Amino acid sequence: MKKIFLLTFFILLFIQCTSVKEHNKHLNDLIAVNNLKTDVDFAYKKLQRLEPKLYWYISKKELDFKFDSLKNTITKPLTSFEFYKKLSPVVAAIREGHLSVSPSLKMYTKAERKELSKMGIGPFSQFNFIVINDKLYVLKNQSENKSILPGTEVVAINGKKTNQLIKEYSTLFSSDGYNQTFKNNRLPNSFSSFYTNENGIQDSLKYSFRQNDSTQIVYIKRKIAEPKTNNKKEGKEIVKPETNQIKISKKDKSTYGYNKFTKTNNRNLKFIENDSSIAVLKINHFDLGNYSRFYKESFGKIQLYNTKTLIIDLRNNSGGGLKEIVTLYSYLADPTFVFIDPFQVVSRTSLIEKTPFSKAPLLAKILISPFYIPFIYSKVHKDKDKYYISGSESKPHTVNKNAFKGKVYVLINGGTFSAASIISSNLKGSKRAIFVGEETGGAYNGTVAGFMPTVELPNSGIKITVGLLVVAPHYKTELEGRGVFPDKEIIPTLEDRINGRDPEMNWILDDIMKKTTTLTENEKDKKITEK
Asked: Per-residue pLDDT tens for 91-146?
């Protein structure tokens, strides 16, 4: 039995290595014109079959023209990546933030990936960037060259002007609808990925920096990772935590959604006044950990401490699971509420494209499909020539018994997207909260997401990720294609970001103080009048 297992393992390893080598061998091959045009038609047909609101922000006539024009521009063979740069802007014109195009990139074996992880910190990762007015600035410098100060403009990288790269990369993806806040928020974090996709992994980069009206050329090399020390060899005593401490630690990590990569909690609750009158709920992402326990404990504390004001920080929250935002909303809403509309889909069969067993072995798919397909088919209903599927989230919900009744402020920005934007829409529409910051990156009236299958084009290997469900909040706005607007718009400056200032939070705290002072003075006047 052991011999069979080892033989199977080595066969699978050989197949993987062979497929990786074969893929990389043909990565830069030129693809024939007819095959590229076939991929264009294949992509559009898939979008028409799967995307339930394909013409939400662009007419069919306009999109037909864009795909036809794309085919007309293909007059010579192209590599897969060259084709990707032509196809992506056309797909981005659909203006669906979850709809994305990924190039066919170099693949690595498991052993190669392990070696890459030991390579240290690359020349991009040694900086945190920010994009303002199509310019790239250094926000934080972790390189060994400390002469590069925060606020320094990055003019060029390896001779390529960054403002031109920003404009090019901005065409490769889209936000929901017509807003631009999402792109400005996403670009600083994805700039290095776009660059690496085209130019490969870099061990050294030639930066052109502009600082105090002078430009300097600086070469930033990869920082080699320091070898891990072995405490046993050094004779250091390793103190093991008690069993009870381990259990508590694991429970806390689960409750707060500890992210082992960023080494931060996904959710946090803190009180910023001695009397606990103000609570701040920071949620980085609606995912990870036991969110039900977190909200139960958090709102239990808020009720116990008689907190008057709750600040919910959803800045740079890219979304996550629907069930979590419904749970959070139940602690903030009216006695009975409907959170979202039934999910709109293209047809009764479109959901078959993405199933819980999509990655299962072929035999498992064959055995399960006869039961799963009729089940999905029965869940979809037709209403006025459109197809819908109802989930538990679209049914009436009752408010939680520990629901917060006090004042609510919500912090938002261009990174507030997907599920974070959906809950913002309902809090805004129900007039439950005061919003501070900038327009959300996600659209007020919803998005196309839910199940997200990836479609691979047959000739170029390019992948398109498509949303199958229209996720629409209960509350809507007449202004289509824009996000949730703040009641008080505050956009941090570059100086604010460099110096760690939080003007949005400061405005909220000042507003609370003013209203508290006014309320106290009114109460004093009332007592004097009564006397």
From this structure: 999 999 999 999 998 878 888 777 777 778 999 999 999 999 999 999 999 999 99
pTM: 0.87
Residues 81 and 457: beta-carbon distance below 8 Å:
no
pLDDT in tens, 320-361: 999 999 999 999 987 778 899 999 999 888 877 665 555 656
Q: Which tens digit of pLDDT belongs to each residue from 203-260?
A: 999 999 999 889 999 999 998 766 555 554 444 454 555 544 444 467 677 888 887 7
Closest CA to 387 of 444, 466, 445, 470: 470
3-state secondary structure string across 145-212 = CCCCCCCCEEEEECCEEHHHHHHHHHCCCCCCCCCCHHHHHHHHHHHHHHHHHHHCCCCEEEEEEEEC
The answer to whether 330 and 298 have CB atoms below 8 angstroms apart is: no
CA angle 476, 397, 308 (to 5 degrees): 80
Orientation angle between helical segments 80-92 and 33-50, nearest 10 degrees: 30
Pairing mode, strands 380-383 and 386-389: antiparallel
Q: Which of 352, 475, 452 is nearest to 102 (CA)?
A: 452
Whole-angstrom Cα distance, residue 105 to residue 92? 20
Residue pLDDT, tens place only, 283-319: 999 988 899 999 999 999 999 999 999 999 999 999 9
Q: What angle do CA 325, 330, 331 make, to 5 degrees?
A: 105
Count CA atoms within 13 Å of residue 159 on its CB side. 1
The answer to whether residues 354 and 365 touch, using CB atoms and an 8 Å cutoff, is no
Which phi and psi angles does 436 have, rounded to 5°? -135, 135
**CA 522 – CA 511 distance, rounded (Å):** 16
Task: Name the residue type at position 146.
Answer: K
Helix (H) or strand (E) holding 304: helix 291-304
Q: Kindly state the tokens that stand for 26.
A: 């043909």
**What is the token pair recorded at 220?**
């930033």
Residue 142 has a pLDDT of 94
Encoding tokens for residue 326?
A: 């419904």
